[in-house]
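Archive entry: two folds, one per protein. Generate the first.
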Amino acid sequence: MMSELSLRIPGIAGHTFAVLGLGRSGAATAEALIGSGAHVLAWDDSETARAAAPADILFDLKNADWANIEALLISPGIPTTFPVPHPVAAAAREAGKPIISDIEMLVRAQPQARFVCITGTNGKSTTTTLIAHVLKAAGRRVEVGGNLGQAALSLAPVGHDGIYVLELSSYQIDITPSPIADVAILLNITPDHLDRHGGMDGYIASKQKILVPKGKSSLGIVGMDDAPSRATFAAFKDKGRRLVPISAEKKVENGVHVTADGQLVDAIKDAPRNIIDLNTIAALPGKHNWQNAAAAYVACKALGLSSDEIILGFQSYPGLAHRQELVATLNGIRYINDSKATNADAAEKALACYDNIYWILGGKPKDGGLTGLEPYYSKIRHGFLIGEAAIAFTKQINRAFPTTMSGTLEKAVADSHALAQREKKPGAVVLLSPACASFDQYPNFEIRGNRFRTLVEDLAGKKGAA
């Protein structure tokens, strides 16, 4: 039974909806639909997922009569087009039925709320949690989720004055046809998930959908530090949503940028003014986090916060788990959990921040492997290779720095710890930044990062932290 704090979706009582996928988002979707009075036909190709669902909603959707179904709500991990559409998605489309996300239904449930939506190949989780933290610290009513954390339809109602801060993947954007963002943030676009979008053009087009205007007052915040995002800014600046450019690399007209020495500069309306020295925010190291901070600053200003409120929020931000998370410092050597770096572009952000790196890398490789990381190889004292990618990465590194085939994360932590403690280089870090997905050895990057944290904490318990 749903509580008073559960979402109710108006106008769907008595209607029938199909739900495909019964993981985190699908299970919450089914519950919210039922709680709103709808009939649900739900399915998951996994027997384990079906076993965890209420038996009375299970129905093999391959046998569905689509004439009696309002829409298909599909989990974002299930393909609707490329590389091959799921048969149920193909049948729904052939029947002319909408294929939509739980995000779409959240907007229907809370039409008076304001929505901040964040996407980008990298940085979206940090930006999402940073914005939510700053808003909460300033006393605003906020719920945060989407691709990060809680599923959209498991969030609490926030009402007229409330704000939803949602991280959106390209998969979620593709199945959310309505323009939902009062504040839309596009941080960056670099190649990722290309198989799901039919190539780079499809991936860019998916990300760009977040900037479709919701209304005259809707705001877009666009990173200017990569070519596809700059092209997107130029293409969308006169399409009805006011756009503010941000950069961690250069000055931008009528926007917010960060100087080479870390000063966040607001030049949106008036003469440029320094807001905060980002070097003083330990939880936001590196230029990539400076871009995240710039996006968060613009978003929070647009939502009515003062510069002082934003500064206080930045200063109390604890950081994001699995994203350059400092786990421990042992005898002066830092142990950093960057498990969320599931591709080379994400790993680059961490490699740029440190020197004398004992690098744990590998897993299920992405297209291109380590391409683009070569300029950082001089910072690597030693690489410790794990997982499926280990042999291919050894060939790609080609003796640019010494490597050890550790194989498992347990062995890599032990190997890197032993060498780092023996060499005791100034500023040294043991860095888990895999540049790979986790799926060869772990169900997700969070479990991989939690395992790293446990292994390091075990070392700390044995050795004591300095």
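Generate the second and append.
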Amino acid sequence: MKRAFVYTGGEIFAEYIQEKPQDGDIVIAADSGYNNAKNMGVKVNILIGDFDSLAGELPKDVDEILQVPAKKDLTDTQLAVEKAVRMGATQITIVGSTSGRLDHALSMLAILEGLHERHIRGIILNGQNRVSYVKNTNHILLSGQGYKYFSLIATDIAKGVSIEGAKYPLKNKTLDRKLQFAVSNEIEGNAALITVKKGGILVIESRDI
């Protein structure tokens, strides 16, 4: 498994972020995501962006800087993720804010579905939320990670959805993007088991801050 970490801009809650790169991991910052990485004590290998939100001179402690035009089709985060994919990453953790501008937040969530289609495991987290994409499989959520709540958000229609080991169990239900009802659940015991027989869902773990 080749892991990559992509740091983006926006508000993060660094004290709650347990996932950090190890030796040999790819570390990429998208524009002002460099500041989030630096504040967490993370060494950035590659910096990508149009640098409209990274104030001052470009940093000199990165191995590679890729400056792109401000007028472009992909966001800086998308470009950073694509760079990680080209470098062979099979697991990509995106560290950044899912708050702020809704268009950017939704774009980030859509990245997870695209990575799944390419058989790459993706996670988005900012300390308050951690998001994964699950399709046609089982997924285990462990307690003791600091996230009090979890929600299942269907990206289209998900069938055969079951939840075991939670405050609000489900058995073989259908979740529809237009009517979300599997929101704000809680793990009971050591773990919760989520099953999706057909379709895709976003699994969102959250804590109150």
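Annotation attached to the second fold: The two ends are 33 Å apart (CA to CA). The mean pLDDT is 93.
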